Amino acid sequence: MVQFLLIGARKTCRGTAILACVALLLVPAWGTKIKIKRATPAAEVRPPDLLLEGGRKLTFERSFRSEQEARRKPGFWAKLVNVIAGEPDYKRMVSPYSIAVDSRRRVIITDPGAVGVHVFDFTEHKYKFLQRRYKDKNAMLQPQCVAVDGHDNIYVTDSVSGKIFVFDADGKYRRVIGSLKGGEGYFKRPTGIAVDSATQRIYVTDTLRNQIFMLDMDGQILQKIGKTGSGEGEFNFPTEVLLHDSTLAVVDAMNFRVQFLDRSGAFRAAIGKIGDSSGDMFRPKGIGVDSEGHYYVVDGLWGVVQVFDEQGQLLYYFGGRGANLGHFVLPTGLFVDRDDRVFVVDSFNQRVQVFRYFGMGKQAKGGQP
To answer: First vs last Cα of the chain: how many Å apart?
Structure first.
């Protein structure tokens, strides 16, 4: 087994501070605003590469936060118009949460604070903002997590309405899943979502029910997985979910672990436990996997991303609390694309930071479709 260098440092949280940290875990789930003074970022200094054993490394690529960064730089006449009429009112991230990257390399980010979904197309220099806040029927009230299918259709869970909204690859609203007669949603609090295009299945965590729902592509319930508890295959506030090959990885937030199941919901393994040491988890959030099968798990409290191998061994971690590049404050979502770019939603800093993992030899196709 290849052992990587452990690089980084972590502050501990003990005694009464641990009780406060547990309380913090529930804050975003109930929509309570956190009263933390935003730090003013220092000079944008690019963090150094994280050098790992075996010639591997993790490099910082960029960060972004607004529509302006996706658009082309204005030419002379556009600049002149901006001087006369003022700068355009570009959309910015408010409270970004979840992230996905589609086959066209478009970056899709839910933003409960903006009550919509950002779609950044850096290749074509385009941007879209998807919203249904003011619709009389099937309004999207709090977009939570996002996934894409094999055709780049976009699936968004809404933790307030209890529904799943589906947009096509062009961002046009197509349908809603989980809408009952009378307009209320079926799910109590849908959070994580994964789409298995190969088997035509959708997996959704219902955080308040402590279950995972397996649906067909029409939204019909095929199976309910799990129940309340701390045993194998049991959950306590499950949130994010990730499908990788035949493995379903579920962030079991209040059990402070990630559980691995097969496609039918049978337990396979688990990693993580509550604690203040490297490899422990206190506020597990987003999860992703790279081309070498390493799992990346965000810890929102510590402000780090921990990386584990398939056996659950901690390989390394990166980040730390702060506003500088390479640091995070209340990070949430994470996605690893097919080129092993690691997108981390740095929620409180209102941005996404992008890293790239260079493994052994030639880069294979990446971890998530």
So the answer is: 26
Comparing CA positions, the residue from 175, 180, 203, 205 lying closest to residue 190 is 205
Q: In the numeric block, which tokens belong to residue 291?
A: 């081309």
- Strands 295-299 vs 304-308: parallel, antiparallel or unpaired: antiparallel
Q: Which of 9-18, 89-98, 254-263, 323-332 has the lowest mean pLDDT?
A: 9-18
State how far Cα 23 lies from the chain centre.
Answer: 21
SS3 308: strand
Residue written as token pair 């962030």: 251
Q: CA 287, CA 291: separation in Å to the nearest integer? A: 14
Using an 8 Å Cβ cutoff, are 233 and 267 in contact? Answer: yes
Report yes or no: 54 and 360 within 8 Å, Cβ to Cβ. Answer: yes
Contact (Cβ atoms closer than 8 angstroms) between residue 226 and residue 188: no
Question: Around Cβ 31, how many Cβ atoms within 10 Å?
Answer: 10
Residue 96's DSSP bridge partners are none
Minimum mean pLDDT range among 85-99, 105-119, 285-299, 335-349: 85-99
For the segment 135-178, what is each residue's pLDDT rounded down to a tens digit? 999 999 999 999 999 999 999 999 999 999 999 999 999 999 99
In this prediction, residue 188 has a pLDDT band, given cuts at 50, 70 and 90, of very high
**φ/ψ of residue 25, rounded to 5:** -55, -35
Please report, as a single letter, which amino acid is at residue 348: F
DSSP secondary structure, 221-232, as one string: EEEEE--BSSST
| Selection from 222, 226, 185, 220 nearest residue 205 by Cα | 226
CB 345 within 8 A of CB 332: yes
What's residue 369's pLDDT? 44
Q: Taking the CA of residue 50 as centre, how many other CA atoms within 13 Å lie in the half-sphere pointing to its CB?
A: 22
